[in-house]
């Protein structure tokens, strides 16, 4: 696992969604209605969350997304400008709405489920991508997800590989055409569900996770990282498997953990770190993120460094 990058920064192309977050005592069963304990409107979207996580680690973070023409877009612009990205490019979909995510957090299960209305995120055009060519050129690592239309994701990856960038695909949410992107991907970061969909192997333990990782590697991705929630993650580079255990955490909200992992992984790689060191850092970063409420509420470097120091003792 010797992949690393120079320190030119990260370009994140992805989604923005307004998160409508409802906290409940326990998830409803089929046909059951449960009362909401509390509800909040928060900034979100996998692209925006990952870019925010990346920005916590490196100032040289570039972000692109597409919004609708509505009040939610105004909130998005205000939030994203506060993150102080190196560059922020927001295209506008005149005939569509800003994406919305309905998120339910269960206090009993300490977990979440999410329903998406992606709206403008699915309207990214070739022209939109062409307009951010300069930003992409000034990055060494390119990070994408699957909350945007697959054609746009493919074009970003194609341009990135043509410029010899390190490409990271977080294949979430799973898309049936995700396999078409794999030849352009250096690092892939599915969770257990996404890895199961990609590989055809139902993951229920480490042995099945290893089997899935081998299959995804054989599909053309040189570095496979399967995230395993509270069990950390498993990495495979065709030569060896490496297990990274999660760091201790007082869990408040797990909804942004995957985004925290991906954004911080890309950032640490862009700083010239090895993939193994970057995975370890991202695991600690994600463990810190679950101690904060809100998927976009990413930890500070001070929090992450304290977590790493605590474990070293």
Automatic annotation (TrEMBL):
<feature type="coiled-coil region">
    <location>
        <begin position="129"/>
        <end position="163"/>
    </location>
</feature>
<dbReference type="InterPro" id="IPR011611">
    <property type="entry name" value="PfkB_dom"/>
</dbReference>
<keyword id="KW-0460">Magnesium</keyword>
<keyword id="KW-0630">Potassium</keyword>
<feature type="binding site">
    <location>
        <begin position="17"/>
        <end position="19"/>
    </location>
    <ligand>
        <name>substrate</name>
    </ligand>
</feature>
<dbReference type="GO" id="GO:0005524">
    <property type="term" value="F:ATP binding"/>
</dbReference>
<keyword id="KW-0547">Nucleotide-binding</keyword>
<feature type="binding site">
    <location>
        <position position="292"/>
    </location>
    <ligand>
        <name>K(+)</name>
    </ligand>
</feature>
<comment type="subunit">
    <text>Homodimer.</text>
</comment>
<dbReference type="GO" id="GO:0004747">
    <property type="term" value="F:ribokinase activity"/>
</dbReference>
<dbReference type="Pfam" id="PF00294">
    <property type="entry name" value="PfkB"/>
</dbReference>
<protein>
    <recommendedName>
        <fullName>Ribokinase</fullName>
        <ecNumber>2.7.1.15</ecNumber>
    </recommendedName>
</protein>
<feature type="binding site">
    <location>
        <position position="191"/>
    </location>
    <ligand>
        <name>ATP</name>
    </ligand>
</feature>
<dbReference type="InterPro" id="IPR011877">
    <property type="entry name" value="Ribokinase"/>
</dbReference>
<feature type="binding site">
    <location>
        <begin position="258"/>
        <end position="259"/>
    </location>
    <ligand>
        <name>ATP</name>
    </ligand>
</feature>
<comment type="similarity">
    <text>Belongs to the carbohydrate kinase PfkB family. Ribokinase subfamily.</text>
</comment>
<dbReference type="InterPro" id="IPR002139">
    <property type="entry name" value="Ribo/fructo_kinase"/>
</dbReference>
<feature type="domain" description="Carbohydrate kinase PfkB">
    <location>
        <begin position="10"/>
        <end position="297"/>
    </location>
</feature>
<comment type="pathway">
    <text>Carbohydrate metabolism; D-ribose degradation; D-ribose 5-phosphate from beta-D-ribopyranose: step 2/2.</text>
</comment>
<dbReference type="InterPro" id="IPR029056">
    <property type="entry name" value="Ribokinase-like"/>
</dbReference>
<feature type="binding site">
    <location>
        <begin position="45"/>
        <end position="49"/>
    </location>
    <ligand>
        <name>substrate</name>
    </ligand>
</feature>
<feature type="binding site">
    <location>
        <position position="259"/>
    </location>
    <ligand>
        <name>substrate</name>
    </ligand>
</feature>
<dbReference type="GO" id="GO:0005829">
    <property type="term" value="C:cytosol"/>
</dbReference>
<feature type="binding site">
    <location>
        <position position="253"/>
    </location>
    <ligand>
        <name>K(+)</name>
    </ligand>
</feature>
<keyword id="KW-0067">ATP-binding</keyword>
<comment type="function">
    <text>Catalyzes the phosphorylation of ribose at O-5 in a reaction requiring ATP and magnesium. The resulting D-ribose-5-phosphate can then be used either for sythesis of nucleotides, histidine, and tryptophan, or as a component of the pentose phosphate pathway.</text>
</comment>
<feature type="binding site">
    <location>
        <begin position="227"/>
        <end position="232"/>
    </location>
    <ligand>
        <name>ATP</name>
    </ligand>
</feature>
<keyword id="KW-0175">Coiled coil</keyword>
<feature type="binding site">
    <location>
        <position position="289"/>
    </location>
    <ligand>
        <name>K(+)</name>
    </ligand>
</feature>
<feature type="active site" description="Proton acceptor">
    <location>
        <position position="259"/>
    </location>
</feature>
<keyword id="KW-0963">Cytoplasm</keyword>
<dbReference type="GO" id="GO:0046872">
    <property type="term" value="F:metal ion binding"/>
</dbReference>
<feature type="binding site">
    <location>
        <position position="294"/>
    </location>
    <ligand>
        <name>K(+)</name>
    </ligand>
</feature>
<keyword id="KW-0808">Transferase</keyword>
<feature type="binding site">
    <location>
        <position position="147"/>
    </location>
    <ligand>
        <name>substrate</name>
    </ligand>
</feature>
<keyword id="KW-0479">Metal-binding</keyword>
<feature type="binding site">
    <location>
        <position position="255"/>
    </location>
    <ligand>
        <name>K(+)</name>
    </ligand>
</feature>
<keyword id="KW-0418">Kinase</keyword>
<keyword id="KW-0119">Carbohydrate metabolism</keyword>
<dbReference type="GO" id="GO:0019303">
    <property type="term" value="P:D-ribose catabolic process"/>
</dbReference>
């Amino acid at each position: 696992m010797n992949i690393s990058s120079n320190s030119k920064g990260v370009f994140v192309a992805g989604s923005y969604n307004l998160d409508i977050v409802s906290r409940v005592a326990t998830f409803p069963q089929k046909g059951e209605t449960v009362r909401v304990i509390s509800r909040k409107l928060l900034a979100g979207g996998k692209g925006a969350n990952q870019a925010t996580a990346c920005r916590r680690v490196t100032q040289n973070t570039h972000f692109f997304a597409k919004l609708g023409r509505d009040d939610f877009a105004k909130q998005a612009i205000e939030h994203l400008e506060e993150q102080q990205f190196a560059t922020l490019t927001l295209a506008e979909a005149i005939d569509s709405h800003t994406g919305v995510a309905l998120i339910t957090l269960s206090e009993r299960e300490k977990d979440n489920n999410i329903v998406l209305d992606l709206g403008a995120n699915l309207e990214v055009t070739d022209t939109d991508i062409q307009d951010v060519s300069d930003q992409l050129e000034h990055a060494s690592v390119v990070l994408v997800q699957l909350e945007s239309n697959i054609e746009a994701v493919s074009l970003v990856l194609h341009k990135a590989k043509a410029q010899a960038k390190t490409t990271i695909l977080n294949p979430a949410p799973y898309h049936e055409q995700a396999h078409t992107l794999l030849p352009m991907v250096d690092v892939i970061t599915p969770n257990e569900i996404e890895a199961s969909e990609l590989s055809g192997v139902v993951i229920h333990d480490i042995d099945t996770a290893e089997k899935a990782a081998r299959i995804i590697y054989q599909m053309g991705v040189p570095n496979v990282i399967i995230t395993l929630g509270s069990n950390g993650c498993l990495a495979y580079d065709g030569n060896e498997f490496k297990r990274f255990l999660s760091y201790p955490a007082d869990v408040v909200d797990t909804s942004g953990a995957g985004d925290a992992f991906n954004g911080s992984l890309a950032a640490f790689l862009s700083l010239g770190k090895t993939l193994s060191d970057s995975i370890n850092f991202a695991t600690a970063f994600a463990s810190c993120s679950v101690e904060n409420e809100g998927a976009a509420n990413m930890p500070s470097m001070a929090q992450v460094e304290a977590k790493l120091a605590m474990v070293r003792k």
